[in-house]
Structures are given as C-alpha cells and as structure tokens.
Design a protein that fits this description.
Elements lengths: L17 H14 L1 H6 L6 H29 L7 H10 L1
Helix pairs in contact: 1-3
Length: 91
C-alpha cells in the first residue's frame, strides 16, 4: 500500500493519510510560539508534538494559577480599594 493513500486498520475503518498528518503538523507549528520564534523549517514532527504537549501543559498551569487567583477575589470586599484596583486591571 502506498504511503500516500489512507491507511486501513484491520477493521477496515479509514484512518488519516500521511498528507493529512503533514498538514496538521504544519498547522500546529504555526500555533506554537516556541517554534514560530525559531523560524526554522527543519523541525521534526516529533519535536512539534513534544512542544505542543509542553505548551498545553503550560496553558493548563496558567489556567490553574488564574483560577486560584480568582478564587481569592471572592474573599475581598467588593467595595474595597483592592477590589477597585482588580476591576481596573480586568477591564
């Protein structure tokens, strides 16, 4: 079977083609700040996938950190100076 054709699993279900994989990896490269900064065309697909995983982990950490910060806001008096500063930063 040609590597350019869709691969078939033993159950006969169509799978993603090599061309589709190449296209998806290319799209991921464009989304990753770490790889975009390098501007190198010679980044392997495995490196793109590793960087994607790292980037997603970092985003999860940032979300967790921001969630924790927001939960701390619930204990601040809404009319306090701190609350006014926070509102100005959010807007």
């Amino acid at each position: 079977m040609s590597s350019r054709r869709s691969r078939q699993s033993s159950a006969g279900v169509s799978r993603i083609s090599d061309d589709q994989i190449i296209e998806l990896v290319s799209k991921l490269r464009q989304l990753l700040p770490e790889i975009r900064v390098r501007r190198s065309d010679k980044v392997s697909a495995s490196k793109v996938l590793q960087e994607t995983c790292n980037y997603i982990r970092n985003l999860h950490r940032e979300v967790d950190d921001l969630s924790e910060r927001l939960s701390l806001l619930s204990v601040i008096d809404a009319d306090s100076a701190e609350a006014a500063i926070i509102r100005s930063l959010i807007m």
